[in-house]
Amino acid sequence: MKKIAVLGSGLLGGSMALAGQKRLPDTEVYLWGRRQASVDEAASMGIQHATTSLTEAVKGADLLILSTPVGAMLQILETVSRDVSLKGMIITDVGSVKLTPRETLDALVRRCEAKYIGSHPMAGSEQTGVLAARESLFDGAACVMTNDFGHDEADVDALKDFWLVLGCRCYLTSSEDHDAVMARISHLPHLLASVGAMVGLKDPDYGKFAGNGMRDTTRVASGHPGMWAEIMLRNRESLKAPIEESIEHLREMLALLEQSSEEAVTSFLQQAKDLRDQLPPKKEQ
Prior knowledge:
Number of domains: 2
Mean pLDDT: 95
Largest sheet: 6 strands, parallel
Protein name: Prephenate dehydrogenase/arogenate dehydrogenase family protein
GO biological process, one term: tyrosine biosynthetic process
Number of strands: 9
CATH superfamily of the largest domain: NAD(P)-binding Rossmann-like Domain
Shape: elongated
CATH architecture of the largest domain: 3-Layer(aba) Sandwich
Keywords: Oxidoreductase
Structural class: alpha/beta
Radius of gyration: 21 Å
Order of helices and strands: EHEHEHEHEHEEEHEHHHHH
Strand order of the largest sheet: 3-2-1-4-5-6
GO molecular function, one term: NAD+ binding
Distance between the termini: 27 Å
Organism: Oceaniferula marina
């Protein structure tokens, strides 16, 4: 690829630009930001091609990456398509849900004769903004890709190669399966972290006694509330069943506590421990 356009100058977009320009020295990597202030911040981070001009960022690109809220993707793509040909361009996104972008962008992408292949790199943090970006963000992260429209294997491989260069482990699945899995391993944990913060810190003064347990289990609750509200609402159908299961497990624990059965409570906690201990080692930064 000779040119990559990253649209969205937040944590993910900035990290893609930093990693891309370092690890793909023969490729121009452009970062578009809506606000001049964020573009100036990107430049201060060492991002070479940061701009507020969609035309400048996208014209001649082989790969266009939408790194914006899902609800803004269609408008941005419509705007740039008026001035720049997207014909033959691979278009992907980094949204935490995949059904919504697929359904929202389909008609426009087809009309522009572009190729949409979804992406979801499982990287990020509770920090936001381009000043939090880092070149190593994607090292060791899983990246789930979707090719629901059956584009050529060469196009899928080209996108996969980009993520591999950034340090990701790539997996291919459908948008439906992606959203169902993310509801359990990403969206529900964020919701439970938020509940933990609300219950545990019902009196904020309790926080002075908090140790690593409270901080670790509620860390992601510090994420951007507006962004996470959008994610949960757009994936609400997949999220309902895991929420119901969580409620059932809490009811089960209440019953076990009423029974004062140490053996049963231990068994409950042991089952959770066994599942948690099977997680792959955390990626090193």
